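#structure-requests
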Amino acid sequence: MAADHPGGYVKKDRTTDPVGEKDREKWMARFQVRLAMQPGVDRAVVLQAVKEVTVHCADTGEHPRSAFGDPDAYAVQTAARLVPEDRASRARRRQAGVDALDSVLRRAGDIAGL
């Protein structure tokens, strides 16, 4: 334990670990994309979640994968935690309608030979 740090732990120096930094960036990018794809997730939810992960990792020196696991699975968990169920349900219904219309338009294009 480090006596000079209030939490009693030593932060890792990320500036000397370019490979680890690149891996952290990849994890964060995938997490953000997967989170943004979840029903009802808006910019505010993504920003809040990214801040939570960033602060935790900065405070502990942990890699996000060690702290939160797979970015895809964590995105689903985070959306479930941060998005009200009614908003997520509306987004799922809206997406189902868009998907159905897209399917009809594709079939019509196939029939018309487009």
